[in-house]
């Protein structure tokens, strides 16, 4: 079974440090999504890419967050500088971008900012 | 502004009985709805979906009902099994969009053996 791969699975770091989370989408998928899971908001969409081009990052705090797709096999989400309120589980998902095909999620990166 | 709401954070059901998970939405532009299931330390996985042109979709033990006038959908699991214990997310999208999916906050289902 093809899977979305996220690294690292866990990250603990101190406030102010740069954090980079990586995602390898399923081969052949042309859409990539970054979500953040919080208790209050559920799964919040942070950014969306289609064919490696960013289409929507309105859910992302622009001053400290950035998302890129250097190539079709890698998506990154960076936080610089990190803050304790960024502590959450971050999920990457990929999809075919056709009709109503469901997204496939990775297992997430659990981020703790001390 | 939470456009997709799951007002029950948790639900406990006896094995073999029916589990009913509810979801309400506010955006009338949503025309496709999905349920995802999530186990601890794993990502959500797609479970079942329904288009707004239907009011029911069934897949084995899982049935989703859609009431457009009430902007309400529900997921029925019959019979419930211990392996169904997970967090269930309701999600909605607008087909005029780009697959942007709006998720609810989730309901944690516990099926008691």
Describe this protein with a few key phrases.
A: 114 residues, 7-stranded mixed β-sheet, 11 strands, B: 113 residues, 6-stranded mixed β-sheet, 5-stranded antiparallel β-sheet
Structure write-up:
The complex is a heterodimer of chains A (114) and B (113). Chain A is built from no helices and 11 strands. By secondary structure, chain A is mainly β. The mean pLDDT of chain A is 92. Chain B starts with a strand and ends with a strand. Chain B has strands spanning 4-5, 10-14, 19-25, 32-38, 45-51, 56-59, 62-67, 72-77, 86-93, 101-103, 107-112. Chain B has no helices and 11 strands. In chain B, the strands form 2 sheets. In chain B, strands 2, 4, 5, 9, 10 and 11 form a 6-stranded mixed beta sheet that branches. By secondary structure, chain B is mostly beta strands. Chain A binds chain B through residues 4, 31, 33, 35, 39-45, 48, 50, 55-56, 91, 93, 95, 97, 100-108, and chain B through 2, 4, 6, 32, 34, 36, 41-46, 49, 51, 89, 91, 93, 95, 98-106.
